[in-house]
Amino acid sequence: MSNVAKVLGPKPHPHSVWLYWGVFLTLIVLTILTVMVAQHDFGELNIVVALLIASFKAALVAGFFMHLLFDSKFLSVVLCTSLVLLALFLLFPILDFSSRADLDSAEANFLPRDQEVYKYELEHPDQLPLRPGLQQPQKDELIFIGPGHH
Amino acid sequence: MENLNELLKMIVPREWLFSVMPLPSSTHANDLDLLYWFLIITCGILFLLVVVPLFLIVVRYRRKTVHQRAESQKDHNFWMESLWTFLPFVYLAILFMWGFLQYLGMYVAPHDALELRVIGQKWQWSVDYPKEEISVAGVGATIAIPINRPVRLVMSSQDVIHSFFIPNMRVKQDVVPGRYTTLWFEPNQLGEFPVLCAEYCGDLHSNMLAKVQVMTDDAYKNWVEEQKSQNQNVPLPELGEKLYTKLGCVACHSTDGSIKLAPSFKGIYGKMEELTSGASMKIDDNYIRNKLLTPTKHTAKGYPQIMPSFQGRVSERDISGIVEFIKSLSGKQAIEGG
Amino acid sequence: MANINGSALFPLADHYATPEQQVDSGKLGMWLFLTTEILLFGGLFVSYACFNYLHMDVFKEAHKYLDWRLGAVNTVVLLFSSLTVVLAIHAAQKQKKYLIVINIALTIACGIAFMAVKYVEYSHKFHAGLLPGSYFTNATIANPDQAHIYFGIYFLMTGLHGFHVLIGIGIFVWLLLRTIKNDFSSQYYAPLELGGLYWHLVDVIWIFLFPLLYLIS
Amino acid sequence: MSAISAHAGTNYLNEKKGIWSWASTLDHKRIGVMYLFSIFFFFLIGGIFALLLRTQLLSPAGSLIDAKTYNQLFTLHGAVMVFLVIVPGIAASLGNFVLPLQLGAKDVAFPRLNLMSYYIYVTGSIFAVCSIIFGAIDTGWTFYAPYSISAQGKVTLMLTAIFILGFSSIFTGLNFITTVHKLRAPGMTWFRMPLFVWGIYATSILQVMATPVLAITLALIVVERTLSVGIFNPALGGDAVLFQHFFWFYSHPAVYIMILPGMAVISELVTTFSQKKIFGYKMIAYSSIAIALISFLVWGHHMFTSGQSPLVNMLFSALTFLVAIPSGIKIFNWLATLFKGSISLATPMLYCLSFLFLFTIGGLTGVFLGTLSVDIHLHDTYFVVAHFHYVMVGGTFMAFIGGVYYWWPKMFGKMYSEKLGILGALLVFLGFNMTFFVQFYMGSQGMPRRYYNYLEQFQTLHQVSTFGSYLLGVGFLVVLINWIHALVKGAPAPANPFHATTLEWTHTQSPPITHNFEVQPVVHHEPYEYGDEPHSIHGFQGLKA
After folding, report:
1. A48 touches chain C (CB under 8 A)
2. Residues near A139 by Cβ (< 8 Å), separated by ≥ 6?
3. Does any CB of chain C come closer than 8 Å to the CB of residue D110?
């Protein structure tokens, strides 16, 4: 099965060297842009902007350096499939974390319990220490609109 | 729902109704059993829809001679194929909605629920009644609950994931370290019902049992009073003996000299114990106290380090009780150690 | 030197019908492998996202202990190495052996430079006790309770990436030797292309790691 | 048919001799056979673990083994059966042997990589065996954090073993996808490919896309154990439920890595043994791909009680029901194929019929578990155990054994004994149902899984289950004896004993020559065309000529 015959290979279709240099320079410019953008505060959008630029850079590398633009379309399909799966893999845990607080009762958000915290909770039912990253829920938000009971 | 339930009871005899699932003892159970029976009946019909034709086809078209050919080579039928794509879709959509709405009902607790705090710990449950200021714990602990009143459990774990499961109430919820999870139910049957751990948690996972005792309001009040007064009056060694089962010491320490996962209590008081660190320590009151509160400090040689801390869960009187109980198992030698 | 002698014809394995089929198979196989790499790193990206979500302020605080200038230098180094890889393939297509050798050598040099910068960064972190998990000993940082998770993820991501760079360097050393042995020509340079695909992916992953780890403002 | 010539008795088995010729072979057929033997060796080990477990459960407070050993045994039973037996299972053994033949190719796209992935499998299994010998683990095959972070035993070694095995799986999948895309015979269009190829293709997508996540998840547990990073460890600020997301992102698709090849085999058996064109070819082909893709979206149904948010529970429940539809389509299409066919009850077909019966039960009980509120009660009980054994053993394994019987004449050029085959199939069918059907009932009654001892009310049922498992064991033994008997004393097999229509039967001898085909096959029609010319068909013995 491993026998090899020496034959003429497929005819290469080289692209211009200047295309590659052009892509490279664009990438450098975008890197500088990334750093510059990071100095400004866009609030919630910081990470979005950073990721948008990074994605554009990655697309340039994949499209030109990795020849995705010139190769069989199926290779792009393969790449996109993996990216879609990655997005799903990211989506559900984040959705889980973010909606635990909405639907759960207040206690779900609290720090790991130890005796100190427990006693504190019992004594101060209104000001409970929250798990970092979660908002203090408003009293009326705690009631999830579900089928009425009692 | 109620009407459907009645209808179902007419179709399925009452004793059958309760024979597949354990005796329904909560409001959830009544709703859920209806859906469960709907599933059993419809899935049973679907099963027959596959298996009966399969059987008939195999009998009818069985190859009887080696020259027998297929009677037809037809390989498609648009309407049939659409039918068995679309109908399951409708059926499954109904099931989804039904199951989801029921789940929401099981998830959102009413505001007037009696709130209990549950801690899972290898391999026992402990339950605090914050308002009543009592707690029960240990292997086989009895969790008393008044009938016809919603109960909400706020649960967390000290070590690994456990799962609080009461088959009769049809509730189950993982108890996760580092956060709280909740479940609620409203018991509507008097009696004792087992509580099991449904998430594998180590050696004695299958021993992590407790029971829920559903009682009338009056009986519940009496029980609470009894619990409150209980520990104050009993003599120390007797209190220790009670705690020995209640706190779950019994799971690992025997009192008859047999070796479980930890040294037996029999005759241990006053002995020199060799530790994993290589040093030896005399087992006296202080050793027992430290072992209860900070068990990771010293571990007897040849045994796994699995003992949980009882810090905050035992009072000073409890500790004295346990010490006296262990002393009593070592007979007269105890006197010199004290 | 630029001439290709007869030994560098296309080695066609006998279960393939044509050289095109063999080249395309190689590329498809390589791309499938790259998707597994993406999903392998994906696990770490998801951990990053979850803990960034849960402990956003901790991450913002902890990233200040990283030097973004070193990260930026490394980004440029890797981008340049990606350029030299495509130039090497271009040289093979044009049958210019010395250019293949030069470009591969530059790629290897960039890889080593990248690892050298990483060494500087790591030794600083070791020195300051900014380490994963139980090895975290830095007392100056706020929120040490969760900051160790940031450094855990930092070391996992950059460590796994650095490991890939090391493997890439190994692959390119092998490609360099084969080039010197006249194995490649305009008829046959598939291993260069496949090695290049791998190297570009490592570059792309760094393109994401840089802003995520160094520039969370 | 002319392409088959009696080639003076040389074939892939006897062209080269000696252990080294096997160990260094690049021939996909030999690699497939090596996988087959390795997998059944580990099946035997996993089976022995299972019988020990069942024996322990004969009495409520059984004392055959202690709790720790019991926990180790069910962990090892799970880990061995999942990672060493069913995940490679059909795809690596039958897939390797059959797929290039059915495509009319000389080999898989990357023969060296193929051999390498076999050796990776061997390396991984050696690691696994070492971890069993030097310190059996008791974490459950699911390695849930934080238990697995603090558990004793050689957890790291076992995790490494599975990490390595994952790469074997990835490389096999990668190889098959490339083979299907690039090495189809002239005229073999996508819709002329046999359905076995479609099934293996869908499996390969899952192997390539899901397995890397398992690798990183297990690596993270190793890192947690050594460096205490705290991603999954709540004591250090991590999240235990996140581990379950990671784990099931692989392990749910893995369920379909296991069942899709089984469905692939069944599609072949149904059409061949009823001598009828498969009903709804495109529906079956598309449903394989649909199952593969949707299976990435349903992992959360393993976590309905885990403390995952209700919103996510709802989404996963809905998506779970969605994946049931393509499976249902397949069942009905197979039924329609049998209708008006000429159904032979040869041994492979008995396994195929068992599959249809058992998989229907497995699938329908899956509907119970997808229903959110019902799953709350049934989760982590014996109901779940019964459900996945009905799918994994009643589904995949029945198809596997059926497939091995079906391709046995092609693989070894020997016929098996039909009488022993039927006896084995009956014993396996009866034993299996006896073992697992009662477990549905126990689960409904609230018997949790992974219990060393149990409430007395379950004793009778546990005993039925245990005796069933002995019967099942005997059944598998009969199968094994039949195969060994066939190897040693089997009658020589003709090129196409079952009058199948795919290339491995019509265009090459039994067993095939090393290069598969004397002449490169050219395909002119769809895969399952049963012509009109009269011929006699091998059926089960005792048929009138």
Report:
1. no
2. none
3. yes
Six-digit token pair at B20? 């597949």
B163-183 confidence digits (pLDDT tens):
999 999 999 999 998 888 888
* Residue C74 pLDDT class (50, 70, 90 cuts): very high
In this structure, what CATH number is given to the domain that contains residue C94?
Answer: 1.20.120.80
- How many CB contacts within 8 angstroms connect chain A with chain C? 175
Task: Write out the DSSP string of D229-281.
Answer: --SS-GGGT--HHHHHHHHHHHHHHHHHHHHHHHHHHHHHHHHHHHTSPPTTH
* Ramachandran category for residue D280: left, alpha or beta (phi over 0 → left; psi -120 to 50 → alpha): left
Contacts of residue C162, defined as CB under 8 A and 6 or more positions apart, other chains included, come to C115, C118
Of B112, B180, B311, the CB nearest to A110: B180
Find chain C residues with C-beta within 8 A of A63's C-beta: none
At residue B264, does pLDDT exceed 80?
A: yes
Q: For residue range D207-228, what is the model confidence (pLDDT) as tens digits?
A: 999 999 999 999 999 998 988 8
Question: Could you give all domains of chain D from N- to C-terminal order, each with its CATH number?
Answer: 20-506 (1.20.210.10)
Gap from A103 CA to chain B (nearest CA, Å): 9
Residue whose tokens read 């914050």: B130
pLDDT given at position A138: 34
d(CA D252, CA D296): 7
**ipTM (interface pTM):** 0.87
- Euclidean distance between CA atoms B261 and C89, whole angstroms: 66
| Residues 6+ positions from A140 with CB-CB distance below 8 Å | none
Residue ranges with strand state E in B61-209? 114-121, 124-129, 134-137, 141-146, 151-157, 162-166, 171-175, 181-185, 191-197
Q: Which of D380, D364, D385, D368 minimizes the C-alpha distance to D244?
A: D380
Is C115 within the bounds of a domain? yes
Domain count, chain C: 1
Compute the C-alpha angle A45/A46/A47, nearest 5°: 95
**Given an 8 Å threshold on Cβ–Cβ distance, is C36 in contact with D212?**
yes
D300: chain A residues, CB-CB within 8 Å? 92, 96
Nearest CA in chain D to C36: D212
Q: Is D26 close to A92, i.e. CB distance below 8 A? A: no
CA distance D469 to chain A (A): 38
At C93, list the tokens.
Answer: 């297509």
Domains of chain B, start order: 2-59+79-107 (no CATH), 114-231 (2.60.40.420), 234-337 (1.10.760.10)
Do D434 and D465 meet the contact criterion of CB atoms below 8 Å apart?
yes
What is the model's pTM? 0.87
Residue C109 lies inside a defined structural domain of this protein? yes
Give all chains having 3 or more CB-to-CB distances under 8 Å with chain B: A, D
Residue to mutate among A100, A109, A149, A150, with most B CBs inside 10 A, is: A149
pLDDT (0 to 100) of residue A3? 78
